[in-house]
Amino acid sequence: MRIALCSDEPYPVQATLRSILEGRGHTVRPFGANATGGEVSWVEAAATAAASVAAGECDEGVFSCWSGTGICMAANKVAGIRAALCWDPATARAARIWNHANVLCLSNRALSDDVAREILEAWFDTDPGDRGAEGVARLRQLDDRHRRRC
User: Fold this and answer.
1) CA distances from 136 to 74, 76, 129 (A)
2) DSSP strand E in the chain: where?
3) Of 37, 61, 100, 134, which has the maximum CB count within 10 A?
């Protein structure tokens, strides 16, 4: 699977995330600080990486910023992205099942190597299945209604 790995700041946990992803056989495409090695705007980093997921250039994304919140908000502005801010494995599993999330957002500040591994395992080992399909369909309808009003 091709994974967009995106952060707005260089953090040591980014090397751990990349190592875990590659160890699971994924191809990592770096964005933001993961590509430049320096700080970048969380808005621009998320927009560029999310666009690659939405366009099918990457299958999914793992994005992070200091809190995880900003990068998640920016990613969700891109049509076709369902980004979820997850802080533990249970939340990651729920985001896959109930929201069919395609971008995992994490906090650079709060993420240890062990927790990163546990969250990524939960994310990639959870099959979204059909349980959340109705909610995702309703979300698409909400997007369509909003676009018509704007």
Assistant:
1) 19, 14, 12
2) 2-7, 27-32, 60-65, 83-85, 103-107
3) 61
Domain extents in the chain: 2-149
Which is the catalytic residue, given 6, 58, 65, 72? 65
17 Cβ neighbours under 8 A, 6+ residues apart: 5, 62, 64, 106, 116, 120
> Residues with Cβ < 8 Å from 109, sequence gap 6 or more?
66, 67
Using one digit for the tens of pLDDT, what is the confidence trace for 70-114? 999 999 999 999 999 999 999 999 999 998 999 999 999 999 999
Burial class (CB in 10 A: 0-12, 13-18, 19+), 6: buried
Q: Decide if 65 is catalytic.
A: yes
Predicted TM-score (pTM) of the model is: 0.90
